[in-house]
Every structure is written in C-alpha cells, then in structure tokens.
Amino acid sequence: MMLKRVAFGIAMGALLTASGLSAAQTYPTKPLRLVVPYAPGGTTEVLARLVAQKMGENLGQQIVIDTRPGGSGTIGTTMVAKAPPDGYTLLWTSLSPIVINVTTQPSLPYDPQKELAPISLITHVPSVFAVHPSIPARSVKDLIALAKTSPGKVKYGSSGAGGINHLTAELFNAAAEIDMLHVPYKGAGPAVIAAMGKEVDMVVAAPPAMMSQINAGRLRPIAVTGAKRSPALPDVPAVAETIPGFSATAWYGMLAPAGTAPRIISQLHKALLSSLGAPQVKERLLAEGALPEPSSPAELAELIRADVSRWAKALHIAGIKN
Q1: pLDDT at 106
Q2: Are strands 181-184 and 155-158 parallel, antiparallel or unpaired?
Q3: Would you state the pLDDT for residue 159?
Q4: Which residues have a Cβ under 8 Å from the Cβ of 282 and sit 6 or more positions away?
Q5: What is the CATH superfamily name and number for domain 30-125+250-318?
Q6: How confident is the model at residue 15, as a pLDDT?
C-alpha cells in the first residue's frame, strides 16, 4: 500500500510539473493590455502603435493599446504598477512618470524602481519647438527676441506639467534668460492641436506627435532639442547651434509590474526586440525620428537609476520645484 501511495504521489507531482511547464510554454493565452499613460496622438501612443501590432504577431496574441492620461503619466503608470504580475498588463512610457515624477511628485503612488520591472529601452528622441505659421519666429534667435519683447506672454503647450517637454522648455527658458508661459495639456496630441488652433504660440513635443502637421505646413518647426539635428528633420537646426551645449532628449521604454516571472520578461523582451528589428517597423520609426535603441532589462534599470539623479539636478537648474 505504501509503495502505491509513493507511486501515486510521484505521478501527481510529475503531472503538476508538466502542467506548470505547459502553462509557461503557452504564455500568452489571451490578449495583452499595453497601457500608455498619455492621451492619444502623442509621441508615446504613436510609437506604441507602430510596434504593438508586430509584437503581438510575434507573441501570437493581440496587444490592445489602453491610453490612460492624467497626472503627468501617473494615472496609467499606477495602473500597471499595481496590476497582477502575470504578463498581461504592460507599460509603454516616456521617462517622465518613472524618472522625473520621482522629484516633482513627492507623494507618487508607486515606486518605479521597486514596483516596475524593466523590459527594454525603445528609443531616444528630442523635443521639437514648433509654432503656428502666423507666429513671427523662424529661428531660435527670433523666438528669444520675441519672448524678450513680451515677457511672460509667449505661450507654449506641452504634454503636461513636470513632463519631459515642459522641463525641456524650462531649461531653454533658463539658458536663454527668457520667460515663456507654460500651458499644460493631458498629452502631446492635445498640445499640438492647441498650437494649430493658436491657443498657444508654440508647442514642445517629440517628432512623432507632429510630423504629419509639420509636413502639411500646419506647424513650422524652429528647432530640435537634441545635441544634433534629427534625421526626421534634417533641415531644422538644433538649439545647441544657437545655445552651445544645450541638449535634452526623452527616452521611451516598456516595463511590466514588478514580480513578473523572469521567463515572461524574457519572452516579452525577445518579442519586442524582434519587432523593433523588423524592416517595416524600423522604417516607420526612423521616419518619425525614432531610431530603435533596444536594451537589456538590466540596462534599462540602470538608466532609470542614473536619470532620476540627473533630472533632479536639471530640475534644480531650471528652478522647477515640487
């Protein structure tokens, strides 16, 4: 009888182990939700849509984009940080909610380094200063002159208070010794619409959020904020060509809730990198000025740690307080 019980126990153990392995091997078994913590039409959402379809094909399941704007990205980011770590709720975000908000929002409802598991960096992109065609500024020098003539009256829109585009503009204010007025929106998409409607004089956003409007002549780009010109806008000068040393770029990445199994992180990482390397995806990203820059999860984790400190210093320089 004892031998039968032992044999039965071994058989059940083997069955459960096989069942567990089967479950691991069949992930994912249902559609995934990719949370974008900004409004539709902004850079984060545009980039997510360019990659999500191919990544879903690689995983064998649909990836549904879920835009959750608000709180400079905190609302959507909180959803993912508090979600079950089962690989079915993921975050596609700029650095703002997981780097900048650590400094600007002391009561942040999540700890990015403890409650989120990095999967991969996606890309670095600069911001673009673009104005309505009726605005009498065609260069950085023109913009500075206009702002000095009317202190506090030149209005610029961004994707939200404390976000990367807001901070980039404030760093520019400090470097140029001017005082442009910030008007925050719930994402780059609404900010771009505001600039086209002349609610603001200028919009600060990454190329993917406004390339179609620039190409159609509805917005006029003045400068890009990277250290060099953007491949997507080769004729548009960098701010650094007027203010030497000026550079501010945003990065975008994919993360999961902390506690997600390493095997799932690995599978997501592999599917993402394959998607970023697909010729049709890479071509579309490059057209938007977003050169794919995949990383390992560990490399993204280190970037987050380093940038929390770096942007805290930048915030201090720009005089932005929490």
Answers
A1: 85
A2: parallel
A3: 87
A4: 276, 292
A5: Bordetella uptake gene, domain 1 (3.40.190.150)
A6: 47
pLDDT (0 to 100) of residue 257: 98
Q: 128-241 in CATH: which number?
A: 3.40.190.10
3-state DSSP: the chain helix, strand, coil percent, rounded to 5? Answer: 50, 20, 35
Exposure class string for 197-214: b at 16+ Cβ within 10 A, else e? eebbbbbbbbbbbbbebb
CA 205 to CA 43: how far, in whole Å? 8
Give burial (CB, 10 Å; 0-12/13-18/19+) of 9: exposed
pLDDT beneath 70: ranges in the chain: 1-25, 318, 321-322
Domain with CATH 3.40.190.150 in the chain: 30-125+250-318
Q: What is the pLDDT of residue 161?
A: 83
pLDDT (0 to 100) of residue 66: 97
H or E element, residue 129:
strand 128-131
Q: Is the preceding omega at residue 28 within 30 degrees of 0, hence cis? A: yes
